[in-house]
């Protein structure tokens, strides 16, 4: 048996060199540094093989990921893949306990043992294997094999290799973290497909390629038909499964080199390149591809088990070169898709009429930015009352004082603001103005107890810094937060429900109250409602419109009121326009209301005038 004792100073020089290489290595360099380290260690210890195994996340299998072999020794890396953990016998249990596996002579093992069965075909005579552990988690194993003789392993050798194993383990963890960060940055967590950021990069590269080759490329904007209905009826876990299956179906059809990504919700984007150099032929190629995509989704057995009919609405835009910005191309494909959506599933191409719409959208985006910069937005206030007609507060409603078109309501611009992301700036502006106004009211005797409701968009509420922004606005305005009411819609509950609850609880702790707007038109899950820190349910105006004439509407409204009472929530009806509607609501037990019967949304000065007159009429 041999037991080499290399000089201590050369050993420490080797460890220092390897350690330095690992410290400086980026995630992209780690594999190369590991291979270099294995070669240096193998030669230093006069081993025949030096290698690294990585365990799967569930620890059920392990695979040889890196290997160095001495001259004349057969590599084993390709044969040692996806080995079950049981193949390592008792050694696996030693590694999970953080202990090395030391074997000086293979013949000391029972020939029917798992360890002997693993080593003998490889010709291994002696070995030393050390676990790679991070806290309680086993990442892998690092080892040395002796094939052409037997070897004793000294305590010094084992200790030295454990130092190196620690370096390897740290490098693997850093590599995993960087890969995870890259995955989060460029890939959709639900489907594993490219996300918007990665798709934008791929489109830029495709534009450059198209310029060089003069071949057309195309973007296809894809929407899953009736996905919201499925989500509402079967829940978002099933919805996520549908998204994965659709993504897999789309990916299976695409030619090599094309890219599919998920933008948001049920919307996918496909980039197909190297189409014909002739526009008409390229259109036909895209048409054929769209038909293949539709067929792949319709014929996916796993999808049809979830729901019988699965169709897509697809919008397409062709491009040649880089004359247009990537965002413009996506917008064109999106607009084409919405043209399809209006008439049913199928395919539509961006055309001249849609170009005109796109130009209008670009103008609207410019004008909205100007409106934000020039303070053209202002708040109107619609009174909210409690029986017998006392004004308890108001809902703040946004108006745009356009320089040429006059006062514009939100229906003129709010949907585009949501799509373009400008809703974040507009939403912050509204919240600041509302808190400033509420602070003024709180300093006046006649208005000090007024509540003010502010609508919060889903995109705004989902921002990671939304809570911090609200706190900053509260502190800056000096407002008593207990008079501020944030109105959320039921659609917000479908995605990331746990995060929504956590954020609401943080804001509720500050004194802010929450109203669920348009109740009864969306998700309406009693289980979820019980977990939300709500203060108020708002009955959607759609139920109030036909309340007097329609017994079904009365039944729905009665149920909402009873639900609110059961949960200890205030219930407010919006859209009250007639005395008959008010009387019906009072008979059903709803005592909070707002609507044109009392007042339209009013500018600040007119609202305060209404307040004085109304309360004078009540004898206040």
Automatic annotation (TrEMBL):
The keyword Thylakoid does not apply. One of its GO terms (molecular function) is cyclic-guanylate-specific phosphodiesterase activity. Keywords: c-di-GMP. InterPro entries: Cyclic-di-GMP_PDE-like, EAL_dom, EAL_sf, GAF, GAF-like_dom_sf, GGDEF_dom, Nucleotide_cyclase, Rev_trsase/Diguanyl_cyclase. The keyword Hydrolase does not apply. It comes from the Bacteria. Coiled coil: none annotated. Its EC number is 3.1.4.52. Residues 215-352 form the GGDEF domain. Residues 361-615 form the EAL domain. NCBIfam families: GGDEF (TIGR00254). This is cyclic-guanylate-specific phosphodiesterase. It comes from Alishewanella aestuarii B11. The lineage of its organism: Bacteria, Pseudomonadati, Pseudomonadota, Gammaproteobacteria, Alteromonadales.
């Amino acid at each position: 048996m041999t037991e080499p004792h290399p000089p201590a100073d050369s050993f420490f020089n080797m460890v220092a060199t390897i350690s330095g290489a690992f410290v400086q290595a980026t995630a992209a360099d780690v594999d190369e540094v590991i291979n270099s380290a294995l070669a240096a260690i193998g030669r230093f210890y006069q081993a025949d093989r030096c290698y690294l195994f990585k365990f799967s996340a569930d620890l059920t299998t392990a695979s040889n990921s890196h290997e160095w072999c001495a001259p004349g020794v057969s590599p084993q890396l390709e044969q040692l893949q996806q080995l079950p953990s049981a193949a390592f016998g008792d050694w696996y249990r030693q590694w999970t306990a953080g202990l090395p596996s030391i074997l000086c002579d293979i013949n000391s093992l029972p020939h029917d043992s798992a360890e002997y069965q693993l080593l003998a075909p490889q010709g291994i005579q002696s070995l030393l294997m050390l676990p790679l552990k991070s806290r309680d988690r086993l990442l892998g194993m690092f080892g040395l094999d002796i094939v052409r003789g037997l070897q004793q392993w000294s305590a010094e050798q084992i200790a030295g290799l454990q130092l190196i194993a620690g370096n390897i383990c740290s490098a693997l963890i850093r590599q995993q973290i960087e890969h995870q960060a890259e995955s989060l940055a460029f890939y959709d967590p639900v489907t594993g497909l490219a996300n918007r950021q990665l798709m934008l990069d791929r489109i830029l590269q495709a534009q450059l390629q198209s310029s060089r080759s003069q071949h057309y490329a195309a973007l296809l904007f894809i929407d899953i038909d009736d996905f919201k209905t499925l989500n509402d009826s079967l829940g978002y876990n099933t919805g996520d499964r549908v998204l994965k299956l659709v993504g897999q179906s789309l990916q299976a059809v695409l030619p090599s080199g094309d890219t599919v990504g998920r933008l948001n919700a049920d919307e996918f984007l496909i980039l197909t390149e190297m189409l014909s150099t002739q526009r008409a032929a390229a259109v036909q190629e895209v048409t054929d591809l769209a038909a293949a995509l539709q067929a792949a989704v319709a014929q996916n057995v796993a999808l049809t088990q979830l729901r019988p009919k699965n169709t897509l609405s697809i919008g397409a835009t062709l491009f040649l070169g880089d004359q247009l910005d990537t965002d413009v191309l996506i917008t064109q494909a999106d607009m084409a898709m919405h043209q399809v959506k209006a008439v049913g599933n199928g395919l539509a191409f961006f055309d001249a009429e849609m170009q005109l719409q796109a130009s209008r959208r670009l103008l609207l985006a410019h004008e909205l930015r100007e409106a934000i910069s020039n303070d053209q937005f202002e708040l109107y206030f619609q009174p909210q009352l409690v029986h017998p007609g006392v004004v308890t507060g108001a809902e703040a409603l946004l108006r745009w004082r356009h320089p040429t078109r006059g006062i514009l309501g939100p229906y003129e611009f709010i949907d585009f603001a949501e799509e373009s992301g400008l809703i974040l700036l507009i939403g912050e502006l509204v919240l600041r103005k509302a808190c400033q106004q509420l602070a003024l009211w709180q300093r006046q005797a006649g208005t000090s107890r007024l509540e003010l409701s502010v609508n919060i968009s889903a995109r705004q509420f989902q921002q990671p810094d939304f809570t911090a922004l609200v706190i900053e606005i509260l502190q800056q305005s000096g407002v008593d937060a207990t008079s501020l009411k944030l109105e959320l819609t039921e659609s917000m509950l479908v995605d990331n429900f746990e995060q929504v609850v956590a954020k609401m609880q943080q804001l509720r702790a500050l004194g802010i109250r929450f109203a669920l707007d348009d109740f009864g038109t969306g998700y309406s899950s009693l289980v979820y409602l019980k977990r939300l820190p709500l203060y108020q349910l708002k009955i959607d105006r759609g139920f109030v419109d036909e309340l007097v004439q329609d017994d079904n509407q009365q039944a729905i409204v009665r149920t909402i009121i009873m639900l609110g009472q059961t949960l200890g929530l205030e219930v407010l009806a919006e859209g009250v326009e007639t005395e008959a509607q008010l009387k019906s609501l009072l008979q059903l037990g709803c005592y909070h209301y707002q609507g044109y019967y009392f007042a339209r949304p009013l500018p600040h000065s007119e609202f305060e005038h209404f307040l004085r007159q109304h309360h004078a009429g009540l004898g206040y």
